[in-house]
Amino acid sequence: MKQTNWFDRKFDFSNPQNIMPSIIERLEGTPLRLQEKLKSIHPALYAMKPEGQWSILEQIGHLADLEALWQTRLHDILTGKPEMHAADLENTQTHRAGHNTKTAATLIAAFRQLRAETLHQLRQLSESDLFKTSLHPRLKTPMRLMDLFLFVAEHDDHHLAAITTLAEMLMQTHPGIGPAHKGQILLSSALASQEIIPGFSGRFVHTDNMTLVYWEVQPDSILPQHAHLHEQVTMITEGEFELSVNGETSVLVPGMVAVIPSMALHSARALTYCEITDVFYPLRTDYV
After folding, report:
1. CB within 8 A of 79, min separation 6: which ones?
2. pLDDT (tens digit, 9 = 90+) per residue, 146-186?
């Protein structure tokens, strides 16, 4: 089910009744709904940007980015300005904010604080304030104060729905990640296999903080020298695997385990067909 683009949405503000208490309930619930929604989405998916779309983190950050605009427009209506402040239709603040470098908890906490300030102002209003109007700069229609915050509630829901759609799509395109990995049993043979470099095909399990990989490695395949932040534990279950760590070379056979420290230079070569299990800490986001 595809959602209508926000800028293509049509709105009806003809309701003469005071529905502001219900609107306030919706607005107050948005941070809580966000927090609950993320419980069913694996953190490895939060920063992904399929086909240039905003990530889940950027969707959350955008809600916080716009809160100042809603507060400004509230002031516009209360002070009798004929037209409300215009939004930046390019969403420059969201594009430049670096939301993908932040945690979901940080973004939601910032949004919750800003939304609490808005709600405090709304709860001070008189009933007559709710029916004061100003022109919406893009829709070119008069909007009562009550209408403005119905519009805000709809905008909240639009981005919550966008997060749901994005998460569902990412879980389909990254079948090794998903809520099923939290406290449930997985069949390793059912995980999708991906060739990461020539000769190295892996099946991945990602938790909040770790990545586990089941590798199948073809004979004579080379792992070039590299280093990474992650700590790594490597266990050989089949074959012979020549591993060099910080200049020291060993041949690993079934039953042997190698511990590779963070930022240690290492490389390897499969002397035969190998089956290997790797555990990385923290999460290998480059394998997601």
Report:
1. none
2. 999 999 999 999 999 999 999 998 888 877 665 544 566 66
Last residue of a domain, one of 142, 173, 204: 173
Are the CB atoms for 245 and 283 separated by under 8 Å?
Answer: no
Domain count, the chain: 2
Residue 205's pLDDT band (cuts 50, 70, 90)? confident
Q: Give one DSSP letter per residue of 80-140, joined into a string.
A: T-SBPPPP-TT-HHHHHS-GGGS-HHHHHHHHHHHHHHHHHHHHT--TGGGG-EEE-TTT-
**Cβ 23 vs Cβ 151: under 8 Å:** no
Residue 273 counted as domain residue? yes
Q: Which positions ≥6 away from 152 have C-beta within 8 Å? A: 27, 70
DSSP 8-state code for residue 29: H
Report the distance separating Cα 76 and Cα 145, nearest Å.
Answer: 10
CATH number where 141 lies: 1.20.120.450
Q: In the structure encoding, which two tokens stand for residue 9, read together?
A: 């949405």
